[in-house]
Amino acid sequence: MTFSIIGRCAQTGAFGAAITTSDLAVGSRCVRLAHGKGAVLSQHRTDSRLGDLGIALLKDGKDANDVVAKVCASTEHIDWRQVGVLDATGRAAVYHGRRMYSIYSHTAGQDCLALGNILDNDNVTAAMAAAFEQAAGSPLAARLMAALEAGRDAGGEVAGRLQSAALRVSGEHGIDAYDLRVDISDGDAVADLRRLYAAYQEREARLRTVALTPDQVPVSRALFTASVQRIADLGLEARFPVARNADNWTMQ
């Protein structure tokens, strides 16, 4: 029902994930990341608390095997779950619950781990890891996106339409470089995510600058002018003295 991949950029310390499923809102439930520390996937009858615990353990410096062992020991329902962990050094560990009733698999590659359940075939995760490795040298987000598409094209889920998908990449200063989610799609959630990713790529650097150094980003002259006009239309100049203080902003 879900296929996913977590990956690491050894140069930047970034961790990321790409995931899709025929259920809704997969990005909020199944993925946890910590920049420089690791990534956790918790899927199949998902309990998001397992991901929360896993990422806390990675932040404490635990390795992938330790994290999986402790996550599995934390719940009586672990036989229903599928868990994947990639730690700070790129080591991977997985758990497949005994009550999973479908084709499931995982493939650990160089700085990545692909994981899936209720799959069309047992080659899906291998195709994902191969696509990730073949895109070495590309940005982490691009590698993850290519891997997700490879999983879909290799068969993906055994049945059902892909309704949600997500792409996440951690960043410095506690701000993710990418946190893109298609929570419900009328078509192919992976294709929708690709379009969102392509559009966001053009904005990612600016949005990071807005967050970290907002004074460096000029105000849109068109938005400023529209705001001043609306304030005047409503007679709110005393409350919002924007026009007479226009020199406070750099515009373009």
UniProtKB/TrEMBL annotation:
Q: Which InterPro entries match?
A: DUF1028, Ntn_hydrolases_N
Q: Which Gene3D superfamilies match?
A: Glutamine Phosphoribosylpyrophosphate, subunit 1, domain 1
Q: Where are the transmembrane segments?
A: none
Q: Which Pfam families match?
A: DUF1028
In terms of SUPFAM superfamilies, this protein maps to:
N-terminal nucleophile aminohydrolases (Ntn hydrolases) (SSF56235)
**Protein name, per record:** DUF1028 domain-containing protein
